Amino acid sequence: MEPESLYRAAVQAANAHRDDVVSRLGPAHASAAIAEWNQGRFWLWALDRVIEHIQGERLWHECGKRNFARAGQRPRLQEAVREIAAMRRRLEGEGLLPFREKEAGMERLAQLANLLLE
C-alpha cells in the first residue's frame, strides 16, 4: 500500500467544503468556509484519518509506518476507537451542549487521539 499525504488530503477536503459552500451561498463565502473548516472541522477529520491508519485501511505517511494497522494487535486501541465513535455521536447529535460538556468531550477526544498514535 502506497503512503498518502494527510496534508494534501486535508487541503482537498477543505477545498471541497469551500466549493460546496460557494455553490450554495456564493463566492463571497469562500474564505469564511475555509476558515470554518480549519477551525471547526479539521481536527475531527484528522481523527478519522488516524483511525483509518491504525485500522489498516489507509496508510497516511504522517501517522508513521509503526502505527499502521496496529489496532488489531491491541484491544485497548479498538476500545478507544469505539469510545471515539460514541463521543462523536454525542457531540454531533446534540444541539447545543453546555460549553463545559463540549469542552470536556473535545478534551477526551484529544486524549484518545494521542493514545492511538505512539
Shape: flat
Q: Provide the residue-averaged pLDDT.
A: 91
Helical content stands at: 55-70%
> How many helices does DSSP assign?
4
Please give the number of β-strands.
Answer: 0
Largest sheet: none
Q: Distance between the terminal alpha carbons, to the nearest Å?
A: 21 Å
Structural class comes to mainly alpha
Q: What is the rounded Rg?
A: 16 Å
| Poorly predicted runs of 5 or more residues | none
Strand content: under 5%
Question: What report would you give on this structure?
Answer:
- By secondary structure, this protein is an all-alpha fold.
- The chain has 4 helices and no strands.
- It has helices at residues 6-25, 30-54, 75-93, 99-116.
- Helix 1 runs antiparallel to helix 2 and helix 3 (75-93) packs antiparallel against helix 4.
- The longest helix is centred in the middle third of the chain and has 25 residues, at 30-54.
- The radius of gyration is 16 Å and the shape is flat.
